Input
Amino acid sequence: MKNLILSFSVLVSTLMVSCKKENSVKPQTTPAQQTISVEYRIISESGNVGINYLKPNVDGVFVTENETVTRTNYSIFFEAKAGNKFMVEAYNTLPARKTVHVQIFINGNLLNEAFSYDPSQKAIAQGNY
Output
């Protein structure tokens, strides 16, 4: 009888230990934001354009930069974290009916582009990546 009670106790103990639920909490990790390569391209027939664009400053905060360019082709390169809004706009500084073309490339792939033929209108390309 003692052997039966002992065997029953060992069986119950084994079942209790093997059925024990594990409540360990696994830490949730978020992947670091990916750094991407950004290029703004500005193509202008007139070669006289004003440019406004978003670019991160030294603290990584996006600010609007302004430039006047006297070239038919111009590019702006920088690296940034993914998950931001990117924007470039260009316009003729002289009242000419010349085409202004802007493009945004992310890691070498075209994200967005825009054209303007009207001297009073800006070519604006923007997008989130």
